[in-house]
Amino acid sequence: xxxxxxxxxxxxxxxxxxxxxxxxxxxxxxxxxxxxxxxxxxxxxxxxxxxxxxxxxxxxxxxxxxxxxxxxxxxxxxxxxxxxxxxxxxxxxxxxxxxxxxxxxxxxxxxxxxxxxxxxxxxxxxxxxxxxxxxxxxxxxxxxxxxxxxxxxxx
Amino acid sequence: xxxxxxxxxxxxxxxxxxxxxxxxxxxxxxxxxxxxxxxxxxxxxxxxxxxxxxxxxxxxxxxxxxxxxxxxxxxxxxxxxxxxxxxxxxxxxxxxxxxxxxxxxxxxxxxxxxxxxxxxxxxxxxxxxxxxxxxxxxxxxxxxxxxxxxxxxxxxxxxxxxxxxxxxxxxxxxxxxxxxxxxxxxxxxxxxxxxxxxxxxxxxx
Lengths: 155, 205
Prior knowledge:
The structure holds 2 protein chains of 2 kinds. Chain A is α/β, with parallel strands linked by helices. Chain A is built from 4 helices and 7 strands, in the order ααβββββαβαβ. Chain B has a domain at about 60-200. The longest helix of chain B has 27 residues, at about 135-160. The radius of gyration of chain B is 27 Å and the shape is elongated. Chain B starts with 13 loop residues before the first helix and ends in a 6-residue tail after the last strand. Classes of the chains: A alpha/beta, B alpha/beta.
């Protein structure tokens, strides 16, 4: 009998899990800090094309324009590519007013150097992009950035 | 009443709660890594300004049709050849030595029928309305790459580092060394190879 008892005593002690909450909390805080809750509810399809000559974007002074075919969240009638600014779908002719309105939501000292980020679906047409760019020119927002994914654009 | 020590709270479920929160934030997190092609739009059109006359040889015309085919300087071209063609054009330096506007750092063919110097050289891109955005971006990317490669070459020659790398480091805020001086040097390189890409109104076919 004593033989068995001896064996039992030699078993590994259970792993101490007291520090598990600490580790989990650490992860939790990381994700809490890194989280950016999505402000805009996308109503258009938005698959970005690849490019490799790309630069990083300064988030704080940016306003976004989304262009693409209507997505599942869209309730209207349009079938062709549409323009979304903020939460709204706007007509091409209204881009200027809508974007200037968006710019006023930025911090005041950054408004004069606002950058317009264009998130355009890869199936959109260049003509519509040109029209939007003309509107931005009119709105005096010359600095634009075409958001792309990283990758080779030449097969 | 006898002094009683408060019973200890069971903290065993703390990990579960933390896990719940953790999973919530894991799911909602979108770590934004937006990057893209930066472009400067021209100022609004002013009717009174007469556009300057540009010599045909200083203009590099890139046309994209609605089938996403390229026509560069009246010749059909594959997208993969565009970068080199644009570089050759920008780097040509057609004005001979001793004359005003001579480009002493150009390494191109110095053909009198191509661009005078990088400052004069203008790339003009125009697409059809039906051109795919993917192709549009690919062409913009290749033309941007031509400028970036030439800038890299010049900064390598003058300062021993690459323009794009130092610019990326400054933008990311992790440049080691004197940032102001580096910015000044970037400006010098930009003056040597200025970015002159114009866009014409798309054609309807």
